[in-house]
Each structure stands twice: as structure tokens, then as C-alpha cells.
Amino acid sequence: xxxxxxLFCFLSKPSWVILMIGIIMILSSGYTNFGIITNIxxxxxxxxxxxxxxxxxxxxxxxxxxxxxxxxxxxIWIKKHKYFFILIFILIDFIxxxxxxxxxxxxxxxxxxxxxxxxxxxxxxxxxxxxxxIILTYKCxxxxxxxxxxxxEWNITETFYDIRFIMxxxxxxxxxxxxxxxxxxxININNHILYFIIKESLIYITSIINYILLxxxxxxxxxLIKKDETTEIIEKIxxxxxxxxxxxxxxxxxxxxxINTIKTKNSNSSSVPHSILSKILNYHERT
Length: 287
Fold this sequence. Notes:
Layout: H1 13-28, H2 39-66, H3 73-80, H4 82-101, E1 107-111, E2 117-121, H5 126-152, H6 160-185, H7 192-224, H8 227-258, H9 260-265, H10 267-285
Antiparallel strand pairs: 1-2
């Protein structure tokens, strides 16, 4: 085990445990679709998915914040209060989900073309809908924050592969969520078996991919790629990304020069956003 410890230095041991519990919770949410669907099943599903997401990505968010190139009072405080930082997000989940438990979630009965009936989680309660929208917005803010930090820390050598695997994991989760949202909102599936297979497959595949990208890949990658080859690959990726960025920069500069007159008129109002964007790009280019 000691030989493998350096492969998992991105997070501390407790953080890896928290992350794995999060993956297991999301995986467990699939079991709420077995048997008769009740209000309790629907509430448990929401709890598993929401808290599972928090347990996976908040330890990563914590690491990205304290790994920020320039230390500041926020990163220092978060570094000193790691578990309190994680607990804040878990408490937010518990408070919001606790409010939904005060109301009956609701179950919808779907009748197939053959006359068979099956239940799915569906709510018409306004309060629950509002809380679920708040939870969704809150998770989107977390994803956005993670994405910005990942972009800013994209070229840091120590976390080069970790950053890319995390970003891939986020992409997979976004795609999975969008597919589930489309299925629930826009596609009317009257086949119980097909509905069950699609929903379960998305949950299990997403959980397994998260497990591979965030954990298993760290064991496999060093076996496939030697240390000197890893450095060479990183350099090649950087050269390629630098080429793309330079091409985009040249295109942007041509566009900017054409509208420079318009920008000068609005320089006062746009100086702050431009300054923030410049800082983000500056961090992105660091190694």
C-alpha cells in the first residue's frame, strides 16, 4: 500500500473515503427504483443523489481552493478548517432536503399501451419543486466554481492528470443529468422495463465512470505510462494546447482591433470584468 500512496496524494485519506462514500450513495440511489415506488423511495433517491454529489466534489473543491497559485485569506481559512468547510455544504443539503421531507413527494402512476401500470417519482407540490430548483442551482454553482478553478490550475504540473480526470468526470455527470432531465420532462416512456433499464443504466454507468476517473485510473496510469514518458506526454499536451490558445488569441486580437473604438467608449464600465478575465487567463498559463 505504501508504494501506492504517492498516487493518491491529490487528496488526503479521509477525503478519499468521503469521495468514495459519495460515489456509493449515488450508486445506491438506483435501488430506490426497485419494487413498489413510494414517497419514501423518492425522498431517499433525492437525498442519495444530492448528498452523494456533495461528498464527491466538495473535497475536490477544497483541494482546488487551497492549491490556488496565490495564497489568500480565503484559501488560508479553508485550509485550516477543512472539515468545517465540507460540513457547511452537507448542512446546506440537509436543510434543503429536510424541508422537502415535510411534504409528501408524490408518485405518478403510468399506464402502458398494454394496460400495465407502474409508478415513477413525480411531484406537483410547489414547495418541493422550488426546493429542488434551489438544490439544482446550488449544484450548478459548485460545478461552475470547480470548472473555473480547474481552468485556472490547468497547467500545474503536480496536478496535471488529476485536473483533467476531474473535468472529464464533471462532463460525464452533466451529460448524465441532462439525459435524465430530458427523459423525465420530454420523453414519455410507457414501457416499464425500458424506463427502468434507462434510468438504472445512467446511474450505474455514471457512478462506475466516476469511480474509474477519480480513483482506479490512478493505479492504472502509472502501469501504462512510465515516469519519463509521463513528463513527455505532459509537455506535448501543453505544446498542443498552447498552439490552440495562440490561434484563438490571434483571432481574438483581430476582432478586438476592429471594435476597439467601441470598447474605449465603454472602458470604465467594462474594466472590472476585463481585469478578472485577464487574471483568470494569467493563472491558466502558469505551470
